[in-house]
Prior knowledge:
The protein is an alpha+beta fold. Helices cover 60% and strands 12% of the residues. Among the domains are: 91-129, no CATH class; 158-301.
Amino acid sequence: xxxxxxxxxxxxxxxxxxxxxxxxxxxRASGRLGLEIRCVNSRxxxxxxxxxxxxxxxxxxxxxxxxxxxxxxxxxxxxxxxSDTGLGLAEPAPRLLQRLNMLQDSVLNWLPxxxxxxxxxxxxxxxxxxxxxxxxxxxxxxxxxxxxxGLLDARAREGARLGAxxxxxxxxxxTLARQALPLIPALVEQQRQRFLDRWKEAMALTDxxxxxEAARDRALTEATAFAIRIDVAEELTRLNxxxxxxxxLVGKGGEIGKRLEFLIQELHREANxxxxxxxxxxxxxxxxxxxxLIEQMREQVQNIE
Length: 305
């Protein structure tokens, strides 16, 4: 299964002709139905629809289709209608104008304070009756399926790039972890030898007097405590475990965004602990490099579904 990004864009148009209002022969009005979908990252699936009034009733079916194919992201779906006839205004038929006038007179008889129809309102009502391009629900839904497929393809291509980036960063993190592993035994032995040297110096300052055995034991105890304090073997083990899980999820694909976000948080915690236990400049540099890579991964993981 592919890794999907939450960022994507797709659009499509379809042409159609509308039936004339009058049965007499007249030029058929034509137009275009356009649909575009924009999507950016979001914690949940957030849908926004911008539909013309003529197709407002299709929103529930569109919402159902989007919910079936997308799981996360802030999605904006825009449906537009365009007419190819002149300015996009159909000439109202005389019979329709007569009917609107009769209806207006009837309303004004009952509601004298009602506002008469304006030219714009007459043209809008005439458009709803016919004369312009007409579209069926099936056409709108078919176009939505086409655009959703295009959006998923775009999200899959972007997701493949994100997955490759994550795997490349994991490879770099593994290299840094391998560099850190041999540093700890050398640091422990170095510190142990330092404590023993201090103990010998203390012996020399006693002018031949014998220091109690407890002094040597105290030096070794301090060395042991230091070794425990700087031991990062557990952190490196957990880091490698998280690396394996990230690689497994990227290979599996699907809805992995939230799991990856959790793993990135754990990776950052272990890298931060590695830095806090650092007793050498080399280990500090490794910790900083790790956190830079992990932060770059965090920014990209937020775009994965």
